[in-house]
UniProtKB/TrEMBL annotation:
Family to which this protein belongs: Belongs to the glutaredoxin family.
Glutaredoxin domain boundaries: 4-64
Protein name: Glutaredoxin
Taxonomic path: Bacteria, Pseudomonadati, Pseudomonadota, Alphaproteobacteria, Hyphomicrobiales
GO molecular function: glutathione disulfide oxidoreductase activity
Amino acid sequence: MPSITIYTKGWCPYCSAAKELLNKKGAAFTEIDIEKKPEARAEMIQKANGRTSVPQIFIDGKHVGGCDDLYALDDRGELERLLAA
């Protein structure tokens, strides 16, 4: 199973939806709440090539984007491949 990191905010419905999809797939992930750990926000922005919205999701260090991007990967059947790596 790959290493998955997701940057979130506690009140964000898109963050909840992304985590729900990952949980449904049985994928373990590390969640970093940028409100509880504000110093992680700058790290997230730098790693996500300037994207400031949450969630920002990384699989094995590769930026896959936000919630819509994650669901698009799933719709194309590519998420399963990434999670199986």
